[in-house]
Amino acid sequence: MTCEMELDHRAVLDLLPDRDPWAHKGDFGRVLLLCGSRGYTGAAAMAAMGALRSGAGLVYLGVPECIYAIEAVKLTEAIVLPLPDVDGKLSGDAIPEIERLCVHMDAVLIGPGLGQSPGTLAVTKWVLGHFPGPVVVDADGINLLSAHMDILRERTGVTVLTPHDGEFRRMAGEIGADRTGSALALAADTGSVLVLKGHETRITDGVRCYRNRTGNPGMAVGGSGDVLAGIIISLLGQGLAPLEAAACGAWLHGAAGDLCAQELGQYGMLPTDMLKVLPRLMK
Question: What predicted TM-score, i.e. pTM, was given to this entire model?
Fold first, then answer.
């Protein structure tokens, strides 16, 4: 029988890696984010800031060349890289450069604002098929894979999937009355760590399962999930075990939302507000 575990603030802080006073930026994780498309520049920026605000040492953001200038202005701390694109989305021609980058990376995130096209599908397939480290697949990355579930089942490296209910249904059909059971089943089927977002988010590797009780309806706004994806990839890059990285990420994300709700109210809070308070939860 599988029981649900829960985290509290003390447990999250205990799981976070120590910050060695002799360390340098490369010791806190090198992560690559493949995000964004024409019209969806905010998703890439939110994910990158989520990674930076949760402690990643080096954040590389690969975006379609057509939005490079926008992202470079939005982000001063991330390393923004222009990649080949077609019709505003990453193209398959970006793969050689992504391959060169991945040699140096501890973890990769793909999906926020990515869009769906032959090029983005080719990039997603390449990352999952060739990068040996942890990969977080979010948003359009999940939508692209929903018709190619064999890619997940055959992957030998760690994969973290972060679907909301609609994305879950595209991958696995309806969610039953038992949300935990549905999450466990998909995680086991794909060999992934699954973060089933929503009220009391479930995080599971198919055997163990966390239930997250932080968060509130004020977080139901565009960009919130991109911040979560950025936090999770940051924690993976810093060396947390996959299930714990995902569970801590969900707790921190929700707790940041709760702080914003207390200070601003649920109606007007934004993901950028969550990014500002996030460091207060990690000290």
Answer: 0.98
